[in-house]
Amino acid sequence: MMPLRVLLVAAGAIAGLVAAEDAENFAVIQGMVALGLIALLVAVLALLDRK
Fold first, then answer.
1. CB-based contact 8:34 (threshold 8 Å)
2. How far apart are CA 37 and CA 31, in angstroms?
3. pLDDT tens, 27-49?
4. Distance (Å, whole) CA 45 – CA 26
5. Looking at beta carbons, which pairs linking 39-47 to residues 24 or more positions away fall under 8 Å?
6. Could you count the other beta carbons within 10 Å of the beta carbon of residue 50?
7. Residues near 42 by Cβ (< 8 Å), separated by ≥ 6?
């Protein structure tokens, strides 16, 4: 559960740069950023050369 919390905190910080935290769509922006971070993490793990 801890990596997910770290990911959501990072997504909240990045979304805070784009929109105010009291905006109506802040949760949507935070969710989109979190999905982008998950996709980035999966891409890095997939492209990592494991020998």
1. yes
2. 10
3. 999 999 999 999 999 999 999 97
4. 28
5. 41/7
6. 4
7. none
Cα(27)–Cα(19) distance, rounded to whole angstroms? 10
Quote the pTM value.
Answer: 0.81
Asked whether 20 and 39 are in contact (CB, 8 A), the reply is no
The structural domains of the chain, with segments of one domain joined by +, span 2-47
Amino acid identity for residue 38 in this structure = I
Given a contact cutoff of 8 angstroms between Cβ atoms, the answer to whether 51 and 21 are in contact is no
DSSP 25: T
> What would the DSSP string read from start to end of 2-50?
HHHHHHHHHHHHHHHHHS-TTSTTHHHHHHHHHHHHHHHHHHHHHHS--
